[in-house]
Amino acid sequence: MKLLGSNPWRGNGISRVLGALFYYSTGTGGRKSPPINSLYLRISQAGNPRVPIIRVLDQWLEEGRHVQQSELLIIIKQLRKYRRYSHALQISEWITDQRNHDLSPGDIAIRLDLISKVRGLEEAEKYFDTIPNTSRVYQVYGALLNCYAGNKSLDKAEATLQKMRELGLLKTSLSYNVMLSLYSRMGETEKLHFLLREMEEKGIEWDKFTFSIRLNAYAAISDIEGIERLLVKMEADPVITIDWNAYVAAANGYLKAGLHEKTFQMLKKAEQLVSSSARKVAYEILLTLYTAIHKKDEVYRIWNSYKNMEKFYNSGYLCMISSLLKLDDIDGAEKILEEWESGNKFFDIRVPNVMIAAYCKKGLFEKAEAYINRLIECGKETNSSTWGRLATGYHEHGQMEKAVETMKKAILASQPGWKLNRLTLAACLDYLKGKGEVEVAEEILKLLKNHSLFSAGIHERLLNYIHNENPDSGALHNMLADVQMEGDDRFLEGETQVNGPQV
């Protein structure tokens, strides 16, 4: 067993890591990072994905400068690294459409991946159909497989893997790992086992990704014997590099099985392998897991190590405050919140929101209201989740008049991606209908429609409900539950979806 190193043991990152392995072209040699004073610098500063990046390229050429295809391919790689997929795709298409350059199979694979991410799977399939058979090599089929896996298109992924078998392209573990990861995510345990047996029969050795997928699959179903058997095999293998994420995966399996002492042992092993570059992510995960097994002393110990890092991370404070609230240490959470308020350089409303939710859960509405008022007085911007959590608190503690007024504020502050608490909405509409305040209920429904929180059809159904002379709260709850079943996830409970990097 080798220790340290950088391993993708976290299940959520496996497909992303595997995908990257397919797409680095074999036709451009070793690609170095772009120089600081370069075209890349201009492109990196044009960060708005809605602004076409081609303008920057055209201006560069108008200034009499030259650009090499190899430089553009490096820029595409960097843009993909930072998830600027739209700009990366624009440059890839500019290379062929405006400069008439041919792409290597590896760069074709990159474009296929980018089209899937930017324009969807159907467009990626159309592009694949235009690729000449002579260019449909391992990387390109691997990219197509990864597109299907990323979209959980199981049948198409299996068909693509079968095509790769027939063409003799399955000679390493990479494509198997993509398929194994998909089976693991979709709970297809038997198919996962079958594919692992196929690898053994064909003499295809497991790599660190294969071990990772297998371990996470065991952990997902709390297969304790499987976890322990695989850990022994990994620790005895002189080739496999094992790091902290492997033991975290095992800890998750033990945790799901209620084996807290074994969970604790795995976390201790994980800690010993955390490298300096991985401390932020590792410490946040350890905070969460030590909280889950009610080890408050360990939570504070990890937190003290976290604070010793050079940078100030909002995500760490959010994690610590949430952990202490789960441990019912509201006084401790308030102290950490004070530290965050005095030290943060980038205000993140999620941090106050988690404390506001805790106050509301405990019925401490004076504290919640005072905190929100203080944020507003300090010029900090609240959001729909701030007011939504307060409205839910009022509802859960029977203060329906306040719940209705606060629900209006939540809707007015809503942004795309916010998911309204359907139970609170149902309670507000029920309350207004019961009091005969149909106009106020109509006002709420109009706000919801104007802010695109549900469709016109749902708006009409809810209007019919509030005008029905025979109130039936059960019908309303069933209606909103049906909305979810139909695929309208805008009525799920919770928080605005946050995209982009955390600070």
List keywords for this structure.
two-stranded parallel ribbon; 503 residues; globular; 67% helix; single chain
Structural class: mainly alpha
Net shape: globular
What is the helix fraction of residues, given as a range? 55-70%
The helix/strand order is EHHHHHHHHHHHHHEHHHHHHHHHHHHHH
Q: What is the beta-strand fraction?
A: under 5%
Q: Show unreliable segments.
A: 1-30, 484-503
* Secondary structure: number of strands: 2
**First and last CA, distance:** 35 Å
Gyration radius, to the nearest Å? 26 Å
Strand order of the largest sheet: 1-2
**What value does the average pLDDT take?**
85
Q: Could you characterize what this model shows?
A:
It is a single chain. The chain has about 500 residues and is mainly α. It has helices at about 15-25, 40-45, 55-60, 70-80, 85-95, 105-120, 120-130, 140-150, 155-165, 175-185, 190-200, 210-220, 225-235, 245-255, 260-270, 280-290, 295-305, 315-325, 330-345, 350-360, 365-375, 385-395, 400-410, 420-435, 440-450, 455-465, 475-485; strands at about 1-5, 240. It has a two-stranded parallel ribbon with strand order 1-2. It is globular. It starts with a strand and ends in an 18-residue tail after the last helix. Residues about 1-30 and about 485-503 have low confidence and may be disordered.
